[in-house]
Amino acid sequence: MTELTITVRYFAAARAAAGIETETLSVPAGTTINDVVGELAGRGAELAKVLARCSYLRDGVAVRDRSVALQTPATVDVLPPFAGG
């Protein structure tokens, strides 16, 4: 099976919970955002809690359906809810 390299970038509370700003993962072709989130959430309760509230961008575009397979190398941004004002 073909492997894809994806870059995961964490912002705000997600960065704090992950303990890193960015990382590179090798995943099988066909992996979904849900799969990536599940793998990341398995790292710890605090990160899982933050990820459950996050929205995601794939290559700068909002992910509406997290079950769509990643076909090419991608950048996935993890965006927790932001308070504005």
Automatic annotation (TrEMBL):
Keywords: Nucleotide-binding. One of its GO terms (molecular function) is nucleotide binding. GO terms for cellular component: molybdopterin adenylyltransferase complex. One of its GO terms (biological process) is Mo-molybdopterin cofactor biosynthetic process. Gene3D superfamilies: 3.10.20.30. It comes from the Bacteria. Belongs to the MoaD family. This is Molybdopterin synthase sulfur carrier subunit. It comes from Mycobacterium adipatum.
